[in-house]
Amino acid sequence: MPAKSGQRGFRTNTSPLSINEKDYQSVSQKHEPSRKVFANCVRAFLVGGVIYVIGQAIQEAFMAGMHLSAKDASAPTSSMMILLSVILTCIGVYDKIAQWAGAGTAVPITGFANSMCSAALEYRSEGLVLGVGANMFKLAGSVIVFGVVAAFVVGVIYAVLGLGGHH
Amino acid sequence: MESLALAALIVDSEAGDYVLAGTTSHNCTAEKQFRYPNEYGSQKPPSAQYTVTGSGAVVLGHAKTGTVVDCATIGRVMDMGIKDPFNMGGAMAPAAADTLLSHFRDTGRDPGYYDLIVTGDLASVGLPIAKELLKKMGSI
Q1: Residue (of A17, A103, A159) closest to B76 by Cα position
Q2: What distances in angstroms separate CA A98 from CA A35, A51, A103, A120, B33, one per listed residue?
Q3: For an interface test with B, which of A5, A10, A14, A28 has the most B Cβ atoms less than 10 Å from its Cβ?
Q4: What is the 8-class DSSP label of residue A139?
């Protein structure tokens, strides 16, 4: 029961919590736990390094087993790394490794594969075309867009400066 | 909480003898809706919260004994410009503090009246913020 229900009509419409956005954000920021930057760097270094060592081992195996040159072996090596990442994503392990490793799993090609695979898995329930097809690049799309834009800008700079390139 | 308040109103106005009020949430839909795909390998900051997969329900009736719904104060949306989906405590704390202040102003009670004041999932980041806001407003 409200104490003075007869006075309810006189309630002012102002919020009882009088704090503006800027002040609140400084309060909120003060309470936000800080990230362990140094530990994250070490973990990213270790996990990223391990991923590259695995990639190198696969490349060596292709070179020795199928007598490919280092350059020819790089394409099937990337494919194998993508396949491994997609399998780990599908069985729900990749995101758990990533939580520990941070940038270590995000930067290599496996991170790109994970971003596409996870989006594809998530939107499968919305159909193949409008679900998987439309949303697969939801996370990876920005990488493609800015990659193309950066390549274009660099290309223009090269052309203007007359540095040439492949003809 | 809103459904509980509505259910209590329905029982009190004798529109229903027994009313079941419930709420539910699912981790995967919350992740998909507000954050990234579930299997996406991004590192969550320490302020990130985990949406529980679960539900709770309560039946309200006219029984004269046991716990009763005495009164309810409906909160309001407080958008303080926290845009980080990994800091739900920070986003929700002002609304919690505002609702408590409204409740105390509305009923004329003070926090000491209650044995226990329970909020939603403010957690380790949101709770200290809400406490600080209430202290600032001179409520606790």
Answers
A1: A17
A2: 15, 12, 8, 18, 20
A3: A28
A4: T
Length of chain B: 140
Which phi and psi angles does B21 have, rounded to 5°?
-115, 130
Span A16-37, mean pLDDT? 86
Percent of chain A with pLDDT over 90: 59
The C-alpha atoms of residue B28 and residue B11 are separated, in whole angstroms, by 34
Q: How far apart are CA B35 and CA B55, in angstroms?
A: 21
Chosen for mutation from A20, A26, A31 (greatest number of chain B CBs closer than 10 Å) is A31
| Separation between Cα atoms, residue B128 and residue A99, nearest integer Å | 26
Q: Output the furthest CA–CA distance in chain A (Å, rounded).
A: 91
CB atoms within 10 A of CB A11: 11
pLDDT at B34: 86
Strands (E), chain B: 19-25, 54-60
| Owner of token pair 């229903």 | B16
